[in-house]
Write a structure and sequence with these properties.
- Helix 2 packs across helix 3 and helix 4 packs across helix 18.
- By secondary structure, this protein is of the alpha/beta class.
- A 4-stranded antiparallel sheet has the order 1-2-4-3. A 4-stranded parallel sheet has the order 6-5-10-11, sandwiched between helices. Strands 7-8-9 form a 3-stranded antiparallel sheet.
- The protein starts with a helix and ends in an 8-residue tail after the last helix.
- The longest helix is centred in the C-terminal third of the chain and has 25 residues.
- It is built from 21 helices and 13 strands.
- Among the domains are: 84 residues, Gyrase A, domain 2; 95 residues, no CATH class; 189 residues, Isoleucyl-tRNA Synthetase, Domain 1 (Orthogonal Bundle).
Length: 597
């Protein structure tokens, strides 16, 4: 289904052509003065120079040509040459009627579906998720959903941190505590136990303990480095322990991500890239891309157009050890070999932009990717506390993600109980405790996700639990409350014995109704733009506008008491369409709405 702005543009291009001007001047935009018009065309201003004619004269010619066009209700030429346009109520209603019947509400699938890998998450095994993992998970999940909705094959990879010294630290500490375990017996050749020798709670305590010991005791760190080396060079017992660490950690990570309504198609880690490193390094050497610099193997990635210094990309340290760069490049090799993506998107803290610039340039220079493979870095800002600094616990530590979710759930439950008897609540006066708790979880997730996604990804934002959980203003709970209000009206209509399928959508009967219709008509354009720009905040802004438009319509219209049956049926169709638009959009953002609040 064509976007409504494209249909208007087509009419304006035809008008310019009919008047002897180039079609390109028929460009149309949303009005920046909605008090004057709904859409505007500034083509007469642009054409004036080429055709050496006053822009107002050109504008008046165009108005004369379109004045009888049935898609417009009002057209006006305004000095010095603006074209102000209002759509006819009938045309807008017909457009929405088509939306009602179209799959995905008229959002067209991409004509060129691509395989796109999206790297978001990046947790370390044996460590709990903390608030620093929140933005990557929320933003990445939303972009993946939007891409899938538009017809791309999206493959989400969590990219676990499961390699390096942290594994050696865990193995060393476990050896100290349980030296009798078969994993430490080098001569052992049998099968290793199926059950892990630790729980997730024990594992999460082992790592920080070992990390602290390594900082205080040089010999302990040497043991950990030796264990890391042996693990990476194939010692069976340590490989088996690594598998236990992964199994226990991933089970817990999946549970935590599930609580965020986030999922991944791939649960690969840095360890999966290791087999590709030797051949990759040899290829870089043989083809002259890599050279030794102060003992380290590096690849130059600077370009003539650089305005700032871009350091070489280090492939191996002077002792031959690999780095994050090495692993990330080998991961690209893995992805290209096994999944053949046309694009790889990295959703990572924006402070790593220089690092990824080096990695991307190195991947291109060394031909790890095809010439037309797109490598995209989407850097996000930090989530800060009210003091403007990175979000911490009251004690000053890094907050676990589980704790943050629990705090938001608790605050939401308190507000839901307080609001049960408020004038805007559609819920019964006494809601069962269990239902209240389940509803609180759903609404709390909307508060958390919308609070994050409504900000442009690259910007820092203040995490304000009071504002995010409010039922008023630009918040997730406000959007859900709007959906629940619509559900309540539709349920009452059905309970009165009426069918939601009866009648049809009529041209708007009021300004507020038309304003809502115009907002709904923008949906396909907003979703497409939000994906092109990797900008879920544009969907947030859109559904906030839709919710505001709906609530203005609701407060000014007697929907269920409308005496004219055909008009009432039309209102019900409009409500049903509004509900579908809002529910589709919040699903793309990664949350859902309860039945009542």
């Amino acid at each position: 289904m064509k976007k409504i702005i494209e249909l208007i543009k087509k009419e304006m291009e035809a008008a310019f052509a009919a008047c002897g001007y180039e079609e390109k001047y028929g460009m149309v935009t949303l009005s920046n003065r909605p008090d004057l018009c709904e859409y505007q065309c500034n083509g007469a201003m642009a054409a004036a120079k080429q055709y050496k004619k006053a822009p107002i004269l050109i504008a008046e010619e165009i108005i004369e040509k379109i004045k009888d066009n049935p898609i417009f209700s009002e057209t006006e030429a305004v000095k010095p040459g603006f074209l102000n346009l209002k759509l006819s109520n009938h045309y807008v209603a017909e457009y929405l009627k088509q939306m009602e019947t179209e799959k995905d509400l008229g959002c067209e699938k991409t004509k060129e579906p691509k395989t796109i890998m999206i790297d978001y998450g990046g947790p370390n095994v044996a460590k709990p998720l903390h608030v620093g993992h929140l933005r990557s998970a929320i933003i990445g999940e939303s972009i993946k959903r939007i891409g899938l909705f538009l017809g791309h094959k999206m493959i989400g990879d969590v990219h676990l941190g499961d390699w390096g010294l942290q594994m050696g630290l865990i193995i060393t500490e476990l050896h100290k505590r349980q030296p009798e375990l078969v994993y430490f017996q080098e001569e052992y050749t049998g099968e290793y136990p199926v059950d892990p020798p630790f729980t997730i709670s024990e594992l999460e305590e082992i790592y920080p303990t070992a990390s602290q010991k390594s900082k205080e005791d040089a010999s302990y760190k040497e043991e950990a480095l030796a264990a890391t080396y042996e693990l990476q060079h194939g010692r069976r017992g340590y490989q088996a322990l690594l598998q236990h660490i992964l199994n226990v950690s991933v089970t817990d990570l999946k549970r935590n991500y599930q609580n965020l309504n986030v999922s991944f198609e791939l649960w690969k880690g840095e360890s999966d890239a290791q087999p590709y490193i030797p051949a990759m390094v040899e290829d870089m050497k043989e083809k002259g891309y890599a050279y030794l610099s102060e003992g380290a193997l590096v690849v130059d990635v600077k370009e003539e157009t650089d305005t700032k210094e871009i350091p070489p990309c280090m492939i191996l340290k002077s002792d031959g050890a690999s780095l994050y760069n090495t692993t990330d490049l080998a991961t690209i090799v893995d992805r290209m070999k096994n999944y053949h993506p046309q694009e790889i998107i990295y959703v990572v803290d924006k402070r790593q932009s220089l690092y990824f610039e080096q990695v991307f340039r190195c991947a291109r220079k060394t031909k790890l990717v095809e010439e037309d493979t797109k490598l995209t870095f989407l850097g996000f800002g930090t989530m800060n506390g009210k003091d403007g600094k990175p979000f911490k616990t009251r004690q000053g530590g890094v907050m676990r993600l589980e704790t943050l979710l629990s705090d938001v759930n608790e605050e939401m439950l308190k507000k839901i109980k307080e609001n049960q008897n408020a004038k805007f609540s559609d819920a019964p006066a006494k809601q069962a405790e269990k239902e209240a708790e389940e509803t609180a979880k759903i609404v709390a997730l909307s508060a958390l996700k919308y609070g994050d996604l409504s900000n442009q990804a690259s910007k820092d934002y203040i995490f304000d639990i009071d504002r995010f959980t409010s039922f008023e203003g630009n918040t997730g709970p406000y959007i859900l409350y709007t959906i629940v209000r619509i559900k309540s009206i539709l349920n009452k209509y059905v309970q009165s014995g009426k069918s939601l399928e009866a009648g049809e959508l009529l041209p708007s009967a009021s300004e507020n109704e038309k304003a809502l219709m115009l907002e709904l008509a923008k949906m396909n354009q907003v979703i497409e733009t939000s994906y092109e720009d990797l900008a879920p905040h544009k969907i947030c802004s859109y559904i906030y506008d839709v919710s505001n438009a709906f609530n203005r319509f609701y407060h000014s219209t007697n929907i269920l008491t409308e005496p004219v049956e055909a008009q009432k049926e039309s209102y019900i169709h409009l409500l049903g369409l509004t509900k579908r638009v809002l529910e589709t959009c919040i699903d793309l953002l990664g949350f859902s709405a309860p039945e009542r609040m």
